Amino acid sequence: MGLWEAMRARTQPKRNDLDALFHVPSAAITLQTALGFEPTGTGSVCYRSAAGAAFAQTQADVLALISDDAEAPDVEVTQDDFGFTWLVVAGDSDDVAGLCTDLHAVNTTLELNGFASGLLCSMVPFANASGQRFGLTYLYKQGTFYPFAPTGEQTRDTLLELSVRDLLGAELPMEPDLQRWLAVWKAPGL
């Protein structure tokens, strides 16, 4: 923070780094070898939809971009109980790099078309053989990751979340403020 910003009591907003999504495939290998968690093949981007033709066209362009391949993953747009839109990409669980590329494309397209203020997070779910699940969640406005591991309708496995944070701390920018570890109940894929 500079002197002028300190005198005015203003700080620059933290800049996100969408390219951090490309570190998830190597983190997936770490999760698989250390904890036995594997990617589910599903990923999603959560955002607040905007009214108007420009947003509708942008969303249609994103869907066409992801679906424009012979081996394209399934893409679905849903809305949650809080009014947020989830664009869900479901493909091959062995192609985490392709999934992260698709999620990056969704975020970037919304950002470049002026809808960055509506972006909330991106999530890549993981599961193990015993049925435990968590979502590796990227907070768009912070540029950081955190794990979210729901165990019931309103309960979560904080021990698993902290274990994942500690394991991936050297590979991904992890969110240090636990109050920003939002409970994303009913997220697609979890």
Q: What would you note in describing this structure?
A:
- The structure is a single chain.
- The protein is an alpha+beta fold.
- 32% of the residues lie in helices and 22% in strands.
- The chain contains five helices and seven strands, in the order ααββαββαβββα.
- Strands 1, 2, 3, 4, 5, 6 and 7 form a seven-stranded antiparallel beta sheet that branches.
- The termini are far apart.
Concise synopsis of the structure shown:
InterPro entries: PspAB-like. By secondary structure, the protein is an alpha+beta fold.
Task: Please name the defining characteristics of this protein.
32% helix, 190 residues, PspAB-like, 5 helices, alpha+beta, 7-stranded antiparallel sheet
Radius of gyration: 17 Å
Average pLDDT for all residues: 90
The level of helicity is 25-40%
Number of domains: 1
Structural category is: alpha+beta
**Strand runs, count:** 7
Task: Tell me the major beta sheet.
Answer: 7 strands, antiparallel
Give the terminus-to-terminus CA distance. Answer: 39 Å
Q: What is the global morphology?
A: globular
| Uncertain stretches | none
Order of helices and strands: HHEEHEEHEEEH
Strand proportion? 15-25%
Number of helices: 5
InterPro entries: PspAB-like
